[in-house]
Amino acid sequence: MIATELTEMFGLRHPIILAPMGGVSGGHLAATVSNAGGLGLVGGGYCDPAWLKVELSRVNAATRRPWGVGLITWSANQSVLELVLSFRPHAVMLSFGDPRPFVSRIKSAGCKLICQVQGLEEVRLAQEAEADIIVAQGTEAGGHGGGRATLPLVPAMVDAVAPIPVVAAGGIADGRGLAASLMLGAHGALIGTRFYASAEALGHELAKQKIVAARSGETTRTRVFDIVRGYPWPPIYSGRALRNHFLECWDGREGDLTKALISERAGYQAAARDGDFNTAVVWAGEAVDLITKVESAAALVARISAEAEAQLGVGAKLARQPPLPAMLSDNGPTGPL
Fold first, then answer.
1. Are 39 and 16 in contact (CB under 8 A)?
2. What is the average per-residue pLDDT within 142-165?
3. Cβ-proximal residues to 75 (8 Å cutoff; 6+ apart), any chain
4. Domain coordinates of the chain in residue numbers?
5. pTM > 0.90: yes or no
6. CATH topology for 5-204+293-316?
7. CB 47 within 8 A of CB 149
């Protein structure tokens, strides 16, 4: 069993957090991860109250273990936060914006505040918000994020925010990634794409199969899907997605896409409804190489944690003291001169 500040804070069996993927991390998936001993987070996405009521009701009914909700900070408001808090989550995660306007209400509700950051400016805001946990998200992550890679970002954030515990995110899909995160000074891992390809995820089955079949060279960061869907993401946050025909057509031609929205948006919306992923987006991270099949989320939590524990044991064996030379002792050279 791996014990960290994350597991102790929430009473978890495993230092694993489900990434709150909008439209994917619903109540069933979040409850499954929590019941398996991790921390399940419902993906609040663009804060649709009707969707949130359904999914929060599901997780609330399906688990008595700690769970939480993730919100896109620039899209949230106090009304949505009150709706979320009415279901008494154990944690609220805020990403991609200034968390400070929401802090006092989250704290007064007895929730832990998790802030996801991608760089030093976001870290400053998270510290001012007195975050209980900071997620350092590397650019390898699927969906929206920044430009810094996970490997150098995590230890830099650990140093910058100590003693606040850090959780690593971006490019983590198995126990080796979790073990590496712990060795970088993190107290756990937030995992998204691997759980997208799970039986309990809300994503389209064809999208899950696209993830299983993909390789990391087939992902890229882009803004075209936000433009066609009409979501005003801050320019510093692009999204990592699987390459498809729509992306290849418009990536690098964002100005032309903006001019063609009247015709392109209707076609895109139809493709999304029909599960046509030659046009519709599949958000996915660089760890798709490590995903070979759709599995149950509970099995994933157990296996990733067990793999990490085994990997940490292997690492410990590498740190052995070298034996003393045969001809030396504490009193100096021995044997014939």
1. yes
2. 96
3. 45, 46, 47
4. 5-204+293-316, 212-274
5. yes
6. TIM Barrel (3.20.20)
7. no
